Amino acid sequence: MRAKYGSEHAATYNKHPVHQSLLERLGQEIQARKEWIGVDFLNDDDDDAATTATAPASKKPIRMLDYACGSGTMSMDRFQSNGGAALQVLGPYVSELRGIDVSAQMVRAYNARAANQGLPPSEMFAYAGDLLEPTESIGGADLYGFDLVVVGLGLHHLADARLAMERLGRRLTDDGSGVLLVVDFLPHGLVPGGGGGGGDGDCGETVACGGFGEAEMVALMRRAGCREVRYVVLGKGVTCSPEGKKLERTVFMCRGRKASRDEPVVLDQLLM
Fold first, then answer.
1. Rounded to 5 degrees, what are φ and ψ at 58?
2. Cα gap 209→141, rounded to integer Å
3. From the first residue on, what is the mean pLDDT of each consecutive set of 10 residues in the chain (272 residues)?
4. What is the Cα–Cα distance from 2 to 32, expressed in whole angstroms?
5. DSSP-derived secondary structure letter, 24
6. Where do runs of H (alpha helix) occur along the chain?
7. Radius of gyration of the chain from its Cα atoms, rounded to whole angstroms
8. Which of 34, 52, 72, 272 has minimal CB crowding within 10 Å?
9. Other CB atoms within 10 Å distance of the CB of residue 230
């Protein structure tokens, strides 16, 4: 069902006025919390190109995986918001972007965006795949060893969030510096619609749950092998648009640092 929804909405999702409002709000919040995320991001001034940054000699390259990437919301360098302003997300601050999405149409849209920005596949490229498949056989070495793994408004679409988090944790570098970042909704009631599944309007067939609370996210981060978990509520009033209706949703960000091979995960440690 997720693949079907992505195929039907790949060309229009980011253009919907309410979706644009949501993306604009998220972009602003992420920009304000880059230090909080805990990755040694690159400075986009270090690169003359439009998108991914080139690492200066004093910094290592930063590799990012955007899981359930869609057409590239979390990977964006810039997009035009409703007011016409250019909004940056994470693209300008990393040197290499990889995406994975279950929808081949969304992947094509992601890769088309990279090509339109003049970026070669070595810098920005997405693959069609599903980490919940039994074999977990997506990609080769270039889909492991990431400094940052991001799931932006995608975890509530996954049928097994625990398994997904475990497998995403494996994609991080094991040197103790890798960060897993989740942006999603706090728990909320599901609105019937979409012809089945979990409800919540036009994307109802793809919704697996109605959001995540803090305790649940901390437990999921621990399943992924992460410590130094931080959780912040971004605020109320963020909206989405199922079947033309505006529904208020409260959005959170949660990040955890993957423990190194020799570092135990501290089960009772939560940093606010």
1. -85, -5
2. 32
3. 45 54 80 93 61 61 95 73 58 94 94 91 95 82 95 93 96 96 87 45 63 96 96 75 67 95 62 44
4. 31
5. H
6. 2-9, 17-32, 34-37, 104-116, 161-170, 214-223
7. 17
8. 272
9. 20
